[in-house]
Write a structure and sequence with these properties.
Enolase-like_C_sf, 13 helices, three-stranded antiparallel sheet, Mandelate_racemase_C, Enolase-like, domain 1, binds magnesium ion, alpha/beta, about 425 residues, EC 4.2.1.40, glucarate dehydratase, Enolase_C-like, binds 2,3-dihydroxy-5-OXO-hexanedioate, TIM Barrel
């Protein structure tokens, strides 16, 4: 039997319009960046993945892409060794930073991830099976997502207002949530906090509770509060939110909050790599970990994370960043194959203004996406859209996510709200 080999890899950075969504470190720039990775084999197949597109990450992807020719797309352990070797040579093992909130000490997981996902897509295409089958099979055929609410301005300065309008008051947040629930059918809601004083964000959560009495709610201030403030908020929102996400920075701070409340604490900030799990478990710092295959080294390593959280009796949820359909497909396959992923997953998908996958395979019905039934990830690229969005990347002027720099170009006095209240 002849075995297919990787013949070439294409990495295409793309840009799409992003609304002025506010967070603890600033505001989203007018353009969000992603990169599409296509791995071609000598047997004529192509596997797809989507990843970050900050320029340092692109350079690392390019270095691996140049070295991976001839590799067996089924040898994922060997592929990871190759990524580790290439990055060691290129960067001396330096870490990675995305948007001021996600910093990891090693770039191996973030760089390996799209190569692994694209190889799994290839394996699925070659075997005629969906990726979910390669991850152990389907435990749910629809994956529920949470409506992701943001404080936001009506539009980027100097531009027309976008279709979502301003959201700075509880009523405006409720109106945004109404639009998410009515338009997409979401059965739970997450509010991105860390923008306004905690009393105002609690008031917004209470307004959401009054409007949507049955929907699970989450609040995520990305570490904007001290442990003391976090405990006050936890007391106020006990019984109102299903979890508080990263109220305060760091494992130690989260452990202090955890020791003083019964409220479930979740994180995608103090546990973002395997090395963070032992100290977080020992300190009982969090009860829920938000997985993210882009950050945790691909789909199979995220499944490993799921097993570890299960072992320690922790819950598992899923984090997102601004993303397009290829990422959404990978998230859906992963969630569909992960028995203990019982929380609705995060997604920024409603905020995106364009996509580059052909329509039809990833529709939201009642806030859930059915697992695509095609082979591999079950999505195909719309080549015209890819070309257009690559052109947008070339001309938009954004080369890395810089929420703080962009905010400071509008408000010179702004400093990140991390630990502010
Ligand atoms: O749950 C989270 O922490 C996120 O989704 C992080 C993102 O960077 C979010 O804050 C955003 O898009 O501004
Ligand atoms: Mg978070």
């Amino acid at each position: 039997m002849t075995r297919s080999r990787i013949s070439r890899v294409e990495v295409t950075p793309v840009a799409f319009r992003d609304p002025p969504l506010l967070n603890v470190v600033g505001v989203h720039q007018p353009w969000a960046l992603r990169a599409i990775v296509e791995i071609h084999t000598d047997s004529g197949l192509t596997g797809l993945a989507e990843t970050y597109a900050d320029e340092t990450h692109l350079a690392r992807l390019a270095a691996v892409a140049a070295a991976v020719g001839g590799h067996d797309p089924y040898d994922l352990h060997g592929l990871r060794r190759l990524v580790t070797d290439v990055l060691g040579r290129e960067t001396g093992g330096a870490g990675a930073s995305f948007g001021g909130m996600l910093d990891v000490t090693s770039a191996v997981d973030t760089v390996f991830s799209p190569f692994e996902v694209a190889c799994l897509d290839l394996q699925g295409r070659e075997s005629g099976r969906p990726v979910v089958d390669l991850l152990g099979g389907m435990v749910r055929d629809r994956v529920p997502f949470s409506g992701y609410l943001f404080y936001k301005w009506a539009g980027h300065p100097g531009e027309e207002f976008d279709e979502w309008g301003e959201a700075l008051t509880p009523d405006q947040v409720v109106a945004q949530a109404r639009r998410m629930v009515d338009g997409w059918g979401f059965g739970s809601l997450k509010l991105k906090g860390g923008v306004l004083p905690p009393e105002d964000e609690c008031a917004a959560i209470e307004a959401l509770r009054a409007e949507f009495p049955d929907l699970p709610l989450r609040l995520d201030p990305n570490g904007a509060w001290s442990p003391e403030t976090s405990l006050k908020v936890a007391e106020r929102l006990a019984g109102v939110v299903e979890y508080l996400e990263d109220p305060t920075p760091g494992i130690e701070g989260m452990a202090r909050v955890s020791a003083g409340t019964e409220l479930t604490l979740a994180t995608n900030m103090c546990v973002i790599a395997f090395e963070h799990l032992p100290p977080a478990v020992a300190a009982n710092a969090v009860q829920v970990v938000l997985s993210d295959h882009h950050l945790w080294g691909g789909l199979r390593r995220t499944a490993l994370l799921a097993g570890i959280t299960e072992t320690f009796g922790m819950g598992l949820s899923m984090h997102s960043n601004s993303h397009l359909g290829v990422s959404l497909a990978a998230m859906v396959h992963l969630a569909a194959a992960t028995p203990n992923l019982t929380y609705a997953c995060d997604t920024h998908y409603p905020w995106k203004t364009q996509d580059l996958v052909r329509p039809g395979s990833l529709d939201f019905v009642d806030g859930s996406v059915a697992v695509p039934t095609g082979v591999g990830l079950g999505v195909e690229l719309d080549r015209d859209a890819l070309a257009l969005m690559h052109e947008q990347y070339l001309t938009c002027g954004v080369r890395r996510r810089e929420d703080t720099v962009y905010m400071q170009s509008i408000d010179r006095s702004f400093t990140p709200n991390t630990g502010r209240w």
